[in-house]
Amino acid sequence: MTETSVTIYTDGSSLGNPGPGGWGAILLWAQTRRELSRGYLETTNNRMEIRGVLHALEHLKRPCTVQVHTDSRYVCDAISKKWIQSWIKNGWLTSAKKPVKNRDLWEQLLPMLQNTGSAFIGSRRMTGSLKMNAATSWPKTLPGRGSGKLTRGMRVAFDCHAGR
After folding, report:
1. Could you give the CA distance from residue 99 to residue 92 in angstroms, rounded to a whole number?
2. 149-164 exposure pattern, b = at least 16 Cβ within 10 A, e = fewer
3. What is the C-alpha separation between 164 and 162, in angstroms, rounded?
4. Residue 106: exposed, middle, or buried by beta-carbon count in 10 A (0-12, 13-18, 19+)?
5. Which domains does the chain carry?
6. 139: preceding bond cis by omega (within 30 degrees)
């Protein structure tokens, strides 16, 4: 049986930091397109960026190869520059010896990233991609839509060659 390949586009934002915000994700596989989003009354931009990736990966239901596109430099660097591994090694402290922000979300995301060796893909607003533009607009226009079910056994590649 051939492993399913899934492409995910995510974005998150908040109006104010903290303030109201949300995340959006588009999942594409075979001939299927799934759109996810959710809004929050009080949050931060970085929390929404992480949640976009986290909830998109949680939505997958069986082993698959995943390519995630995000414009979040924070998310990309945490993964591609191995900040997460350093934070864990240092007892969830940054290089400045301060507690890591959003630890709760990173701890939820970490098992999904550890299923395989991950490469991360990030983009500057996906250079006009219609898919990324749709994901970007959701945090402002569609708060409250739900996410999905837990995922296991996937290979994840993140597109991180650019970013903010």
Report:
1. 6
2. eebeebbbbbbbeebe
3. 7
4. buried
5. 4-159 (3.30.420.10)
6. no
- Strand 64-70 versus strand 4-14 pairing type: parallel
How confident is the prediction along the chain (164 residues), in pLDDT tens digits per residue?
Answer: 567 788 889 999 999 899 999 999 999 988 999 999 999 999 999 999 999 999 998 888 777 888 888 889 999 889 888 899 999 999 999 999 999 999 999 999 998 876 533 344 555 444 344 444 444 454 444 333 333 332 334 445 554 443 33
Cβ-based neighbour number of residue 22 at 10 Å: 25
Gap between the Cα atoms of 93 and 89, Å rounded: 9
Picking from 107, 130, 104, 102, the residue whose alpha carbon sits closest to that of residue 14 is: 102
